Amino acid sequence: MKNLTFQNGDTMPVLGLGTWKSTPGEVYTAVREAIKIGYRHIDCAAIYGNEKEIGTALTDAMNAGEVSREELWITSKLWNNAHGKGRVIPALNQTLNDLQLDYLDLYLIHWPVALRYSVVFPEKGDDFVSLSERPIEETWQEMEACVRKRLSRHIGVSNFSVKKLGDLASRSDIPPEMNQIELHPFLQQKEMLKWCAENNVHLTAYSPLGSKDRPSALKNKNEKSLLDDPIAQSVARQKACSTAQVLISWAIERGTAVIPKSVNSERLAENFRSPDIRLTLEEMDQLSKLDTHTRYVTGEFWSIPGSPYTLENLWD
Ligand code: A2P
Questions:
Q1: Is residue 263 part of a domain?
Q2: Are 271 and 248 in contact (CB under 8 A)?
Q3: Is residue 187 part of a domain?
Q4: Is 258:248 a contact under the CB 8 Å cutoff?
Q5: Choice from 209, 250, 258 to test ligand 1 binding pocket (greatest atom count within 8 A of CB)
Q6: Ligand 1 mean position to 43 CA, how many Å?
Q7: Helices (H) and strands (E) in the chain, counts
Q8: Is the C-beta atom of 249 inside 6 A of ligand 1?
Q9: Which residue's CA lies nearest to atom 18 of ligand 1?
Q10: Is 256 helix (H, G, I), strand (E, B) or coil?
């Protein structure tokens, strides 16, 4: 498996297992199966509501001798209601407790959006706290403390724009090493790729298959399906592989990590074989024509009436 290498020499397998939308009840089997297939990178988050079950799966896999902690790369994310002083380490400890781990490999600020401590998901404007009231820099200092306390080997962010990433990198003692963002042929974010390559920040592509199983409230009417795209499908026919494998391989060819989610053993195995499919420059070129700058995860849930967050200031 190809890896991304961090400044201190640590390596993260480029292909990881996504666990957003994997419900308790199905995620245990998915993680156990993934580890048996060979996955060594699991992408988690407190807000996915399934870290306890993932923790049981990891412990059982390690106890069964299938994998050791050192061979695993585990990422998790700080939820929006735990930004700010004194909140980050308790949130990370909860995640470690749930995952039954002593440390994470990577901890990310999930969104550049802050919520009141008592709010899990906002319903009204008053549920939000603005970034001027609770600056990212303050949260970042707590993230840095997580590294110093050896609770996470690496820290980074998710859903950050180039502007926010640059601001943070210029003001931090430990610069962010990862930005996890939505990336696929409909949303290629070439400027972000260039900036990250020039500034030693790695990228992880989320929703690489178009995230078709997300709740209907998060879906746009008439959205185009990535897996049904005729060009992606025709590349798959040329390669005698599946469209999902083309999409995963496309992300790896661009030098990013990628975290397709599946809870199905055949699709887990199929996705794991994607790095073997090497796309030619011509095939990459065909896929690069698909960029419509379209997000599946628009962030509209942060811009409800009365919120200090707008789509303009979120994706600035
Ligand atoms: P399932 O979990 O039943 O396999 P994303 O990673 O972009 O969020 O996409 C996840 C969605 O894509 C889920 O609905 C998942 O279903 C589905 N999926 C995962 N792997 C494949 C595949 N190889 N072919 C088709 N659909 C897939």
A1: yes
A2: yes
A3: yes
A4: yes
A5: 209
A6: 15
A7: 11, 12
A8: no
A9: 262
A10: coil
**Distance separating alpha carbons of residues 13 and 53, to the nearest angstrom:** 22
Report residue 167 as tokens: 């601001």
* One-character DSSP codes across 149-211: TTSEEEEEEES--HHHHHHHHHH-SS---EEEEE-BTTB--HHHHHHHHHTT-EEEEESTT--
Given 48, 107, 206, 296, which residue is catalytic?
A: 48
Q: Which among 104, 91, 112, 86 has a CA at the least distance from the CA of 46?
A: 91
Q: What is the CA radius of gyration of the chain?
A: 19
The tokens describing 235, both together, are 């590349």
Residue 178 contacts residue 108 (beta carbons within 8 Å):
yes
Number of domains observed in the structure of the chain = 1
The pLDDT tens digits for 240-272 are: 999 999 999 999 999 999 999 999 999 999 999
CATH number at residue 143: 3.20.20.100
The answer, yes or no, to whether residue 45 has pLDDT greater than 90, is yes
Reply yes or no on whether the pLDDT at 1 is more than 90.
no
Ligand 1 atom nearest to 264, measured from its CA: 4
Task: Give the residue, 218 or 279, on which the prediction is more confident.
Answer: 279
User: Is the residue at 94 inside a domain?
Assistant: yes
**Is 223 a member of any domain?**
no
Centre of ligand 1 to C-alpha 209, Å, is 6
Q: Is the CB of 264 under 6 A from ligand 1?
A: yes
Domain interval for residue 166:
3-213+254-273+294-315
Phi, psi values for residue 241, rounded to 5°: -135, -175
Q: Is the pLDDT of residue 24 over 90?
A: no
